[in-house]
Every structure is written in structure tokens, then in C-alpha cells.
Design a protein that fits this description.
The chain has a single domain (27-332), classed as 4-Layer Sandwich (Glutamine Phosphoribosylpyrophosphate, subunit 1, domain 1), CATH 3.60.20. The strands form two sheets. It has an eight-stranded mixed β-sheet with strand order 4-3-2-6-5-1-11-12. The protein has a four-stranded antiparallel β-sheet with strand order 7-8-9-10. It has nine helices and twelve strands. Helix 2 (46-68) runs antiparallel to helix 3. A hairpin with a 5-residue loop joins strand 9 (296-301) and strand 10. The protein has 334 residues and is α+β, with helices and mostly antiparallel strands.
């Protein structure tokens, strides 16, 4: 090869390398959701839409601050979820729906992908931020899930902030329950306020160390009875994280998500079938759940920083941000 040919090859190689590196590497990422049910553009005023966008943006900002500073995904997930638990807009924490007996019973779970450690609480009534109780179960107990009075007692013993049950009272959620009770139905229909069974909040994150974490928190289903527990605190159904696959948080009709083991199924398809994250999520949420009659959605992220927000309902409150992309929030399909 003459000198001219050699120079041409070097130039071509340089151009190819430049094209391949044109997209910045994603070093950290955060995806959140605030529920996937009853989101109807025609029934949400611009003011209400703006309130949700602002709340989602605040949650993203809280998690982003942790990741941008090099903090762990575990902290980013808990920080983001706490913001949504403290908002009356979402069916989690402060904005939890009411049970048939007029109580607020909250569930949450969290999982770390590096060692498959996990923690969950179900049916708590006095813990201000259930996601912190779930984390405490993971970090400070030999168990994975605690429920009811025992979970409340454990949280109190760990020094977590507790509140009286009236802290969770919101007029909007109370009216939802009364509407259902007056209608005589066993469970609520999707109302103007909208998230009788799909209201959940969650977050998934990738940090600078390459670790994945997923967390989910919910107030459950309006008019739920007999201590009903949905998918949110169930590891593998509503929450799952494994560094060699992905991190997933789900929101939807929990009974279907439990039976389909949605979160674990998506990660298993990535791990064992070699599917990309988007394909795996679309297959489970868009095909398998739909075939069963289940509605809802998921958020997910993998170690490459690929972010997925897949749902089969009219909409899903959601947002994302990463080291190469500014924060974005959305709620409708478009």
C-alpha cells in the first residue's frame, strides 16, 4: 500500500471512530413514574397538567442531584420517591387512596441490583415515607417483607418519621371512596380523578458505579378490602433490579402484574433471551399483559443507560433524565 492509500485508510478510520463516538456515553440515568391510570387529556385542565409536570420535575431533580454528584442509585431512587410520596397528587404516601373501611394502607419495596438485596413493607398506616421503611427492612433486618402493625413498629424502632393516620387524609381521595360506596360497586370505576387501581409511584436508576436500583410505593386501590396487597411490595412483580439485566418499577392493576411477574419477566427476557430492554418491555406490557386483560405500565433502565417507559393504558405520569439528556416529563401517549 502506498503512502496515499495509507493516509486514506487512516482518515476513514478516524471518521468512523468519530461517528461512533458522536453520541455521548450515558454515565448515569434516572426514570420515574407516578401512576398509569385514568389519565385523560379531555378531563385534565392545563392547571392540573402543569401541577403534575412540576411534581414530576421536582422528583427528577431530587434524584438527579444525587447521581450528578456521584452518589449511589439507592439514594437517588429513595430521594425521588419521597418527593412523590409527599405530594397529594399521587396515590402514595400523602395522597394515598382509602380502603373500604376508610383507612390508608400503604405498600412499598426497593431492590438493589448489585447483590439482589431487597426490602418491602405492606399495609403500613403510620410511616410517613413507606419507601424508607422498605429500605430499612432491606438494610437493617434479616427479612425481605414486613406487613401491618409489625412493619409500623419496626419503622418506629428504626427512628423513621411516623405520623397519625389523619396525615394521609385528602378530600379528593375521600370523595373517591364515597363515590364508590354510594355506587354500590365492589371497586371503584376510573373517575375524573382517575387512578383507583393504577396509582403508584416508582423510580429506577443507574449510578456512576454501574449499579441499578428500583423502588415502588403505593396507596393501593380505592375501596380495597380484607388487607388486599397489590404488586408494588412484591419483589419480581412490581419491583426488580439485577445489574446483569435491568431495573424495573411497575404501575398497574396489581393482580395481573403479580400473576405475570412483570418486573422479573422483563429482566429475565433481557438476561436469558438477549432481548434489548425496549423489546422485552413491549412484549410483556404490550402483548402478554394485554392478552390477560391487565392495564398499566413500567419504567426500566439497564447498565448501558437505556431508558424505557412502556404502558398500555391511556397515559402514564413519567419522567427521565440522564448524564447526556436534560430532564423531561410526560403523561399522555404522545
Amino acid at each position: 500500500m502506498n503512502l496515499r492509500g495509507l493516509l486514506l485508510c487512516v482518515c476513514i478510520a478516524f471518521l468512523l471512530m468519530s461517528c461512533q463516538s458522536s453520541e455521548p456515553e450515558v454515565r448515569w440515568a434516572l426514570v420515574i413514574h407516578g401512576g398509569a391510570g385514568g389519565i385523560d387529556r379531555d378531563r385534565m385542565t392545563p392547571e392540573v397538567q402543569n401541577a403534575y409536570h412540576q411534581a414530576l420535575a421536582s422528583a427528577l431533580a431530587a434524584g438527579e442531584e444525587v447521581l450528578r454528584a456521584g452518589g449511589p442509585a439507592l439514594d437517588a431512587v429513595t430521594e425521588a420517591i419521597q418527593v412523590m410520596e409527599d405530594s397529594p397528587l399521587f396515590n402514595a404516601g400523602r395522597g394515598a387512596v382509602f380502603t373500604h373501611e376508610g383507612r390508608n394502607e400503604l405498600d412499598a419495596s426497593i431492590m438493589v441490583g448489585s447483590g439482589l438485596d431487597a426490602g418491602a413493607v405492606a399495609g403500613v398506616t403510620t410511616v410517613k415515607n413507606p419507601i424508607l421503611a422498605a429500605r430499612a427492612v432491606m438494610e437493617r433486618s434479616p427479612h425481605v417483607m414486613l406487613s401491618g402493625q409489625g412493619a409500623d413498629q419496626f419503622a418506629s424502632e428504626q427512628g423513621l418519621e411516623t405520623v397519625t393516620p389523619d396525615y394521609f387524609y385528602t378530600e379528593r381521595r375521600w370523595k373517591d371512596l364515597q363515590q364508590v360506596l354510594q355506587g354500590g360497586s365492589e371497586v371503584a370505576e376510573i373517575s375524573e380523578n382517575g387512578d383507583w387501581k393504577f396509582g403508584t409511584v416508582g423510580a429506577v436508576a443507574l449510578d456512576l458505579d454501574g449499579n441499578l436500583v428500583a423502588g415502588t410505593s403505593t396507596g393501593g386501590m380505592t375501596n380495597k378490602r380484607w388487607g388486599r396487597i397489590g404488586d408494588s411490595p412484591v419483589i419480581g412483580a412490581g419491583t426488580y433490579a439485577a445489574n446483569d439485566a435491568c431495573a424495573v418499577s411497575a404501575t398497574g392493576h396489581g393482580e395481573y402484574f403479580i400473576r405475570r411477574t412483570v418486573a422479573r419477566d422483563i429482566c429475565a427476557r433481557v438476561e436469558f433471551l438477549g432481548e434489548d430492554l425496549k423489546t422485552a418491555a413491549a412484549q410483556v406490557v404490550g402483548e402478554q399483559l394485554v392478552a390477560m386483560g391487565g392495564s398499566g405500565g413500567i419504567i426500566a433502565v439497564n447498565r448501558a443507560g437505556d431508558m424505557v417507559m412502556e404502558f398500555n393504558s391511556k397515559g402514564m405520569f413519567r419522567g427521565s433524565v440522564n448524564s447526556a439528556q436534560a430532564a423531561q416529563t410526560a403523561m399522555f401517549k404522545d
